[in-house]
Amino acid sequence: MFQWLIDLDKTLFLFLNGINSPEWDSVMVWISAKYSWIPLYAILVFTIIYRERPYNFIYTIVFVIIVIFLCDQSSNLFKALTERLRPCNDPGIRHLVHTVNGCRGSFSFFSAHASNTFGLAAFLACWFKCNKWGVFLFSWAAIKSYSRIYLGVHFPLDIICGAAAGIVIGLTIYGLYVRVMVYLERKIKDRKAAKRRLEKAKNNKLNK
């Protein structure tokens, strides 16, 4: 039924994957690697701590972790359900695929790299409420996701569906995050109001 889509996906993959050079191989490996972006993650965590009220940053970071966890696990679930082979493992085209550092992993649909990065970008773009941060984060997610096509381990459809899933998860969890934070703010205000009433009552007793 969807064979035409699969064929188109493979054709587009071979075109994009075919645009390669030895100079870009090491660059794309670096872009794709998890540990390459530790400085960026550190900057994001520091910015969250700096911008948030005392202790509220803990809730923000917890929700960010939830986004990444759900994105990653949803990717693993779909890979187990669909069992779509990676391009570098596909017997029909693997002899045409440009791979770097071998072919790792068996299944490709959908990309955890795409879902994780786009999920994080969607959540933090809403949290920052800043177009510049949004443009930067989504550009970073797109480049990191494209590197997976370049390295021969994901089809374009893996990336597109992974990005869509990540955005949906990121926005959904952000909506939940806002509700939780509003609830916590209300509880804090109620506690402060109750404390003021108690102090006022004590002072009235002392003045009698």
Explain this structure.
- The protein has one domain (19-207).
- 75% of the residues lie in helices and 0% in strands.
- It has helices at residues 3-17, 22-32, 38-51, 56-82, 112-128, 131-150, 156-207.
- The longest helix has 52 residues, at 156-207.
- The protein is elongated.
- The N and C termini lie far apart (85 Å).
Brief description of this entry?
The protein is an all-alpha fold and 208 residues long. The protein contains seven helices and no strands.
Number of E-state strands: 0
Bin the helical content. Answer: over 70%
Strand content: under 5%
Q: Summarize the biggest pleated sheet.
A: none
Q: How many helix segments?
A: 7
Mean pLDDT: 90
Topology order in helix (H) and strand (E) letters: HHHHHHH
Flag low-confidence runs.
none
Report the end-to-end length measured between terminal Cα atoms: 85 Å
Number of separate structural domains: 1
By secondary-structure content and strand pairing, the structural class works out as mainly alpha
Oligomer: single chain
The geometry reads as elongated
C-alpha-based Rg, rounded: 23 Å
Name its key features.
208 residues; mainly alpha; elongated; 7 helices
Spell out the blueprint of helices and strands:
Blueprint: H1 3-17, H2 22-32, H3 38-51, H4 56-82, H5 112-128, H6 131-150, H7 156-207
